[in-house]
Every structure is written in structure tokens, then in C-alpha cells.
Amino acid sequence: MEGTAVPGRLTWQVATVTAVTQETPSVRTIGLGVPSWPGHRAGQHLDVRLTAEDGYSAERSYSIASAAGEPVAITVERLADGEVSPYLTEDLQVGDQLEIRGPVGGYFVWETADGGPLLLVGGGSGIVPLRAILRQREHSGSDVPVKLLYSARALSELIYRDELDGYHYGVEITYTLTREQPAGWTGYARRVDRALLAEIAWPAGKDPLAYVCGPTNFVETVAGALVALGYEPGRVKTERFGGTGGR
Amino acid sequence: MSPISHGFHRRHTVPDGAADRVPPGQYLTDGFPVLSAGPTPHTPLAEWTFSVRRGPLTLKSWTWQEFQELPAETVTVDIHCVTRWSKLDTEWRGVSVDTLLDQVEHDAGYVMAFSDGGYTTDLPLADVTGGKARVAFSYGDAPLKPEHGGPARLLVPHLYFWKSAKWVRGLELMDEDKPGFWETYGYNMYGDPWKEQRYQGD
Fold it and tell me: Most exposed among A23, A54, A129, A152, judged by the fewest C-beta atoms under 10 Å?
């Protein structure tokens, strides 16, 4: 697969781990130093390749967690039956090297010129590309109003909690914890469905732009409900994961 | 020279006899992951048609009822998604694209599959004829579920699965290749899993 660079070709390059941040017990953000990164847009992903001592290699795609112009970072959730994610979330250390190529994907992206109002709906680690979008908005000085609905099973599984709570102007964040809630929890405690979206999402009349990312069933439910609520299907962008048992 | 990740090991094993059925960079899954760029369309069967078009002309169109009366066949194939999962021995029932294109006269070299929701993907004619492609409406013993592309999807198992357009509503005949939806966003124009043609230039 490696060889002469073809124009437009995504070539593998060596990245060095510059930072590791434990976000939750099973989720890490990994900062990557990449000498000749071509730049990315919020919402894109990249491919990671790990090579074992015996020569075996495995590749996986991860959403980029940083905004355009920021250093490359990915946020990875450990999957119990995964092959690559356990290594990335438990063994990888600052200074280690791995290979990446990207950025990949150009549909589930947001640029300042895309405007809004923005509805971001994330389930579990589906928050990752949505976080990149929030940072993109912040960095570009955009005043596009945003509503973020973030669903996780428990408080301990919320990723980027402190960062998200630091957003104020024009960003309205709603959390829902579907499995367990701490004492005194004032957020929602239910699965995201049409009724919840009707309550907290932008009305369709505002012509919102929606980004939905999470497990398949979550995305299926949310995207379907938004269309039922009158959202223009072409303005509901989705990214799904899960069910592969292998990332 | 790739840097070595010490402590990283293979965890996924390939069942005996299946090694030559898994393309490079893929792993096997028992599930059936769903990937799509937007909401799942739900077109009523009464409004569904399958059309073969050339430019502005519709050369042939079938209603759902007419489509069901075409000869169908059951096939068992392996499928490979560009996101790296592969699934062996999946069973589908559908109409061969040969059956559809035999009913129109044309000299096209490429087709653009088009779908509800605006999805498109381009394929060489040679890759959807000669028994290589079907319009499938059943998976296993059941009607194809909407999230997997029902009521009908293209099934072109020898290429990465984004070429097997979900919610397919027809084929546009073309003289020259042009990029469809994912191809516009940097994915490969052809998508051969055995050559790992994931992205543009691969």
C-alpha cells in the first residue's frame, strides 16, 4: 500500500504521541504530533495503523477530536472485545509512535460557513466529532447558536464534561444519563426519543443543521425522530458505529 | 518502516479455512453494522419504482409489484465494508442486474446507482453485469430492513459495501465514470477490497 505519492493520495505517516488524557475509566484522548499533517475539518476522521513485533498490523478509523488548525487528537473508547482500542487506551504512552493517515470523510463536517442553528446529538463516544465541531465554532469566533444533547449511561461515562460545562455563550447543553444517575441529578434520566427531542431541540421552522453520532440504534432513533419533527433530511447528518464488535 | 507497538498483538482470529476469504485489513464480524450518512428513508412500496435512466430519459421502470414478478435468485456471498468489517456467508434474494439491463438497449460503460435520500455511487458496467450484481430485497429469510437498505439495495459483493447502494431506486447509464456520493468525499472510484482501494489514490 505504501509507495510513490499520488496527488490526492492519503499516505501513511508516523505520528508521535504528545499527550494522553484519561477522559473516563475507559476513554482516552491521544494527542498526536504529525510532521506533515495536511489539516482537517471538524467532524473528519483518520486511520490508525498499529504494527506488532511479529509484523501483524491492524488499522481502525477514529474521529478527530480537535478543531481545524489545532494539533491532531483522537478520543478512543476501549471496547472489551476490541483489538486496537485496548492497546490505545491502556498501553500507549507519550513518546510512542504509530502510523496514521487522513483526514478521511467530508460529509459529516462542519465549517463556520455552514452556519446553523446547530443541533448536535451524541450518544456515548459519539460526542467526539461533535466536540470538534464545538471547538471549531469557538476557535472561529462563530456566534451560531448550538444545542447539544449528550446521552451517556452514567455520569462517570460523560466525556469532556469539564470542557463542555465551560461553554456559555450561545451553547446550550442538555445531558441525559440513561442507566444510573447520581443523587441530586438535575439532567434527564431517559433515552433520547422523539418526545425529548420535541422538548429540547430547535423547532424545524428555524431550519436547523443537525449532526447525530452514536451507536446505530441511537442514531436510527434520533435521525428518524428529527425527520418526523419536520427536519429536512438533507440537513440531518449522521455517523454511526457499534455492532462491529471489533474496534 | 513501520514503528513497532510493543505489547500490541493480534486478538482477532480467522476461522479455519476462512483466511483466503478475508481481504487485507479486514476483520470478521457476526453482527451487521449499519453505516449511512443521513436518516433512513421509508418509501412506501406503493410509491417505489426501480428505473433505468439515460440522461433525462427513463428507459424502463418497474413498480414494486412488477419488480417482484421478475425472476429472483438467492445467493450466499461474503461482504466487505470499507470501515474494515467483513461478514461471511450472507444470504440475499434479489433480481440480477443482468435481468434489468437486458430489457433496455444501450452501450453505456458505467452506471450511477441512485437512491432515496440522494445517495449515489458509480460502478463500471462490467461490475454490475455478468452475474456480479443484484437488486436485493431479502436478507436471510426476511424482507430487507430499512436500516440495511430495504425495501431494496444494490448488492455488489466483490466491491467494498458502499458500492452496494442502500434504498436503491435505479441505475443511470453513463458513457464515462463520474464520482458518486462517497467518491466525491475522497473514497476510491472502484473500491476493490482485495487491493484495499479504500480512498482516492489507493
Answer: A54
> Inter-chain contact A51–B4, Cβ cutoff 8 Å?
yes
Q: How far is it, in rounded angstroms, from Cα A150 to Cα A121? A: 6
Residue type, B78: D
Query: Can you list the domains of chain A with their CATH numbers?
Result: 13-104 (2.40.30.10), 112-241 (3.40.50.80)
- Which pLDDT score is estimated for A229? 98
What span, in angstroms and rounded, lies between the C-alpha atoms of A40 and A47?
Answer: 13
> Who's near A80: CB < 8 A, 6+ residues apart?
none
Q: pLDDT tens for residues A191-235? A: 999 999 999 999 999 999 999 999 989 999 999 999 999 999 999
B137-147: per-residue pLDDT in tens?
Answer: 999 999 999 99
CB contact under 8 A, B11 and A56: no
ipTM: 0.92
Q: How far is A185 from chain B (nearest CA, A)?
A: 32
Domains of chain B, first to last: 23-31+47-195 (3.90.420.10)
C-alpha cell at B107: 452501450
Is the CB of B4 less than 8 angstroms away from the CB of A57? no
CB pairs under 8 A between A and B: 131
